[in-house]
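Narrative of accomplishments. A recurring question from our advisory board has been how the design workflow behaves on a single, concrete structure rather than in aggregate. To address it, we present the structure tokens for one chain from the evaluation set, followed by the sequence designed for it. No filtering or post-editing was applied between the two.
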């Protein structure tokens, strides 16, 4: 019996250049496994960031681990 391959993903919080940063040159947040809990937390952070800095200034970036 062959099990289907499972692709693992990571997610992180990203923001536009319009958002002031404490550390210049920082491109995004830490990468986390793409789990339901982490996705919910980052989606909440995106919503807060967009309320504070404007629409589409924050988003969740995804990559294959």
């Amino acid at each position: 019996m062959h099990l289907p391959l499972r692709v693992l993903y990571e997610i992180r919080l990203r923001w536009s250049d319009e958002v002031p940063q404490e550390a210049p040159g920082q491109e995004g947040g830490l990468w986390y496994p793409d789990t339901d809990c982490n996705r919910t937390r980052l989606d909440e952070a995106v919503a807060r960031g967009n309320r504070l800095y404007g629409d589409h200034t924050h988003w969740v970036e995804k990559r294959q681990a």
